[in-house]
Amino acid sequence: MLADWLPAIVMVVLFALGTPIAFAIAISALSFFLASGEVPLNIFVQKMVTATDSYPLLAIPFFVLAGAIMNRAGITRKLLALADALVGHMTGALAQMCTVLATLLGGLTASSSADAAMLAKVLGPEMTRHGYSAAFAAVITSCAAIITALIPPSIGLIIYGYIADASVGRLFIGGIVPGLLLAGSLMVVTAIISKRRGYLPLRATRASRAELGRAFREALWALSIPVFIIVGIRYGIFTPTEAGAITVLYVILVGLFAYRSLKLADLPRLLKETALDTASVMLMICAASAFGFYLAWERIPPQMAAWLVSLTKDPTLLLLAINLMLIVLGTAVEGTSALIILTPIFVPILTKLGIDPVHFGVVLVTNLTIAGVTPPVGQMMFISSQVLKVPMDDYTVEVLPFLGVMMLLLVALTVFPQLTLWLPNLVYGK
Are 92 and 195 in contact (CB under 8 A)? Predict the structure, then answer.
């Protein structure tokens, strides 16, 4: 019946009209409660409110706050110096530094959008001053920010683990190898383009061992944070949620006493920024909880499961088909909202077919984060393009080779699950 699909239709229309994501999902869910006549309206409010009653989701504000503190404490400058020492001698050095810096920052900011904004503001103007096209600078800063979605602690993996009831610790470790492969892929494309266009190195020669060692020592406090998180979770010292709180305390101490660039007077402003960023994510989760009730009531997940299985029962082919659908969907729907809506639909299907939820989680988050750099609604695309004043047409042309290599990596992650699973299995056991 058409009425069964009314909320989904409403949501698509609202997305097309440019309605903010959280409100589009909430209004779509509300349309179901108003039209059904079978479910009391107060259930809508209950579903919105009870979604916040989740211990694992506490990790989100803690890690967002930790990232804000580290940025204020000047950690970016230390890591930028390390990136310069590592790749400053390469062709297209500033663009290569962008990818290296994003990889180093992945365990600190936990947010691809925050990374895109920071990279565009810090390195974007430097690239244009050194002769890089503004569109290329916007593309590399937005694409490099995707690495943050995979290097722990990733907010996308936390949300997926909560919804899919999967181990956040295994997801964190499972994202490391794909994140490093993504960084390497972006650097290869950057090197090819930079050589053709004559984007120059910043150094005539490689950094000396002494200089490299000095840059590494100065960045050591920052580099220790992802290791601190992973080791603590692996050996049961704290849960992923507790890791967020302890990381906040840790980075405050680092900022106050190790780098001495953080002041207690900065904390109120950082807390305000964290509250605003967290509220936007939580509002989407609340709205998606109410929308999820509609999906369950109308038995849409089982219907979709039957349709997908009718296409093929081969797990790999099915996962490739889902990837293709997500790529198309990602051109129109923001990644976080798609993650929240689609996880409860796909996970039961794929688990029954023997696909590891950690493998699927990393593939899903990678796919939907790549959507953040694809026109017309890519969030990181908007951020980098706005900072560097780049028209969407110019951005679209420049992003194509980077999208090509990222799609190849996505296929590899899909077809070869051990790229994701071997490290979690090594650390945790099978």
Answer: yes
* Residue whose token pair is 């943050």: 148
Do the beta carbons of residue 330 and residue 317 sit within 8 Å? no
pTM: 0.76
How far from 199 is each of 206, 397, 403, CA to CA, in Å?
17, 18, 21
* % helix, strand, coil for the chain, step of 5: 80, 0, 20
- Cβ-contact 227, 219 below 8 angstroms: no
Query: Token pair for residue 366?
Result: 């990678």
Q: Which residues have a Cβ under 8 Å from the Cβ of 35 and sit 6 or more positions away?
A: 3, 6
Q: Which residue has the tokens 């090594």?
A: 426
Q: How many CB atoms lie within 10 A of CB 16?
A: 10
Q: What is the rounded distance in angstroms from the CA atom of residue 218 to the CA atom of residue 224?
A: 11
- Per DSSP, the chain holds a count of helices (H) and strands (E) of 23, 0
Q: Where are the alpha helices (DSSP H) in 353-391?
A: 357-370, 379-388
Q: Cis bond leading into 153, ω under 30°?
A: yes
pLDDT in tens, the chain (430 residues): 555 778 888 888 887 787 877 788 889 889 988 887 788 888 888 888 887 777 767 777 887 787 778 777 777 778 888 888 999 899 899 999 999 988 887 656 556 776 787 788 878 888 998 899 999 999 999 999 888 888 887 778 888 998 888 988 899 899 999 999 999 999 999 999 999 999 988 888 888 889 899 989 888 887 887 777 778 877 778 777 787 788 888 888 888 888 788 888 888 998 888 888 778 777 877 887 788 788 778 777 667 667 777 877 788 888 888 888 887 776 656 667 778 778 888 888 888 888 899 999 999 999 988 887 887 667 788 778 878 888 878 998 999 999 999 999 999 999 999 999 999 999 888 7
> What are the residues whose beta carbons fall under 8 Å from the beta carbon of 350, sequence distance 6 or more?
315, 318, 319, 322, 357, 360
Report the SS3 class of residue 20.
Answer: coil
Q: Which residues contact 429 (CB under 8 A, 6 or more apart)?
A: none
For the beta carbon of residue 172, count every other beta carbon within 10 angstroms.
28
